[in-house]
């Protein structure tokens, strides 16, 4: 059975790595009865070393069979170029399944190209909803779910979201492959990351922040408010902000530049590899982010999180008390940082760390 994996952004590299390792394990256990062949397409949505190549090296992902080198551009242009290039590969490879991940333009392009060629689609991290269609990610995940034959959900909430839209066939709760990835990375980070001494940081002596979602970066007021909040926080404590290249360019292009007045305790750094970011997350006193993946990682690492959005798909982290929605309001963010304490309870969320194994077992059992 041949599976084409479509990835393009760093969260997808992390998720896909777990599946690639599970496929390799499946083939070692059943080398003759039902071997799986994986063909990896990297769309090039994230393309510089810190956003792409380092993740392949660290996470032990096989080198992509195809690198489409699409790069950054407007949503419609980027998605269209991806569809054209992915379609060419699918016609050449003629796979039994394609695997798509999450909610990026790479996900949408892969789903559309495969559906039009009548190739079965498996969607990892299906069923998430923010109910905010101003987010491009929301459009991408809704369309991908409607087109998918197998929908692998991280939680029962995701299953309920799909059922409300009439999607019940092919739906399975597997847990979250990001939990699998974190188990792998946390062990590696403990011995392979020197990011804290390199930045002069003390465990629990800093806040970690990330900002990359379009709802924040493409709205000058929201981005300005978030940067103002981080700058205000940095007047009294260290704030580490790895800057996504797109976010950095937007900040530099503002007039006056939102980077011009950063206090000394606001450490602006380039994006870092997965082991380094896990080390930074684990030792932070709190995390401020608009990343869905980092919200979950913060929860699993037992680090309080302030989400820089007005809603989240990962509502269980909020309900558990480990996550607060800070939005893009300076006072609200500051108050969330001040008030959020480590909760006593920490229920198990999003599976047992064996999601990838369950996904591969399901796909392999579906035949050709």
Account of the 3D structure:
This protein is of the alpha/beta class and 368 residues long. It folds into 2 domains: 2-176 and 351-364, Rossmann fold; 184-339, Glycogen Phosphorylase B (Rossmann fold), CATH 3.40.50. Helices cover 46% and strands 15% of the residues. The chain contains 16 helices and 13 strands. It has helices at 10-29, 53-58, 75-93, 105-116, 136-147, 156-164, 177-192, 195-199, 214-217, 220-233, 245-253, 274-283, 292-300, 315-319, 330-339, 355-364, and strands at 2-7, 37-42, 66-67, 97-101, 120-124, 150-153, 171-173, 206-210, 238-242, 266-269, 286-289, 305-307, 323-325. The strands form 2 sheets. The protein has a 7-stranded parallel β-sheet, sandwiched between helices. Strand 11, helix 13 (292-300) and strand 12 form a beta-alpha-beta unit. Helix 1 crosses helix 7, helix 1 packs across helix 16 and helix 7 (177-192) crosses helix 12. The model has no long low-confidence stretch (mean pLDDT 92).
Helix and strand topology:
Elements: E1 2-7, H1 10-29, E2 37-42, H2 53-58, E3 66-67, H3 75-93, E4 97-101, H4 105-116, E5 120-124, H5 136-147, E6 150-153, H6 156-164, E7 171-173, H7 177-192, H8 195-199, E8 206-210, H9 214-217, H10 220-233, E9 238-242, H11 245-253, E10 266-269, H12 274-283, E11 286-289, H13 292-300, E12 305-307, H14 315-319, E13 323-325, H15 330-339, H16 355-364
Parallel strand pairs: 1-2, 1-4, 2-3, 4-5, 5-6, 6-7, 8-9, 8-11, 9-10, 11-12, 12-13
């Amino acid at each position: 059975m041949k599976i084409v994996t479509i990835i393009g952004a760093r969260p997808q590299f992390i998720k896909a790595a777990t599946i690639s390792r599970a496929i390799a394990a499946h083939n070692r256990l059943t080398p003759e009865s039902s071997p799986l062949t994986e063909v990896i397409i990297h769309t090039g949505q994230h393309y510089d070393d810190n956003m792409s190549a380092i993740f392949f090296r660290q996470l032990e992902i096989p080198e992509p069979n195809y690198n489409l080198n699409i790069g950054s551009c407007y949503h419609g242009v980027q998605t269209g170029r991806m569809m054209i290039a992915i379609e060419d590969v699918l016609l050449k490879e003629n796979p039994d399944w394609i695997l798509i991940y999450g909610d990026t333009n790479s996900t949408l392009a892969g789903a559309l190209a495969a559906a039009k060629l009548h190739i079965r689609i498996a969607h990892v991290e299906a069923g998430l909803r923010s109910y905010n269609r101003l987010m491009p990610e929301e459009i991408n995940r809704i369309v991908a779910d409607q087109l998918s034959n197998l929908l692998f959900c991280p939680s029962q909430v995701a299953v309920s979201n799909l059922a409300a839209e009439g999607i019940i066939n092919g739906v399975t709760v597997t847990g979250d492959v990001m939990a699998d990835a974190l188990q792998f990375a946390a062990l590696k980070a403990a011995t392979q990351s020197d990011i804290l001494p390199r930045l002069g940081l003390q465990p629990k002596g800093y806040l970690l922040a990330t900002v990359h979602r379009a709802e924040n970066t493409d709205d000058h007021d929201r981005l300005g408010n978030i940067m103002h909040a981080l700058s205000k926080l940095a007047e009294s404590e260290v704030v580490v902000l790895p800057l996504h290249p797109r976010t950095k360019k937007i900040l530099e292009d503002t007039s006056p530049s939102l980077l011009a007045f950063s206090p000394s305790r606001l450490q602006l750094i380039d994006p870092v590899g997965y082991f380094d970011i896990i080390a930074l997350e684990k030792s932070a006193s709190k995390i401020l982010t608009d990343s869905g993946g980092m919200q979950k990682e913060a929860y699993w690492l037992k680090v309080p999180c302030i989400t820089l959005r007005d809603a989240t798909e990962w509502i269980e982290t909020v309900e558990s008390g480990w996550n607060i929605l800070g939005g893009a309001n300076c006072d609200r963010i500051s108050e969330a940082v001040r008030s959020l304490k480590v909760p006593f309870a920490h229920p198990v969320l999003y599976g047992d760390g064996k999601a990838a194994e369950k996904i591969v077992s399901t796909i392999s059992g579906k035949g050709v």
